[in-house]
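Bench notes, afternoon.
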Amino acid sequence: MKNKDAIIILTTTDSSAEADKIAKYLIEQRLAACVNIIPEIKSHYRWKGEVVSDEEWLLVIKTSTKVELKIVESIKNLHSYDLPEIVILPIGGGNNEYLQWIRESVTD
């Protein structure tokens, strides 16, 4: 089933508390229909010239293109990282009823 505007936004945090804070804010503000938090993933990356390994929490945010800029700004404002990961992925298709639920759950 084709999709027009449902997207997934990914971000990581350094703690469960911060992941919960961002998730709850996005849901309370009706900027996301659902936020899954995947705990204690291991991330390896280069930061300021050094190779770093950290434990992080991954947020999988189901939302709509109509509020993606608001979500980006919200994450930047709520996040403790200097440069938070914010990756936006289109949802190419899926269960039409679920995609409709995402659209109806998010308000701009």
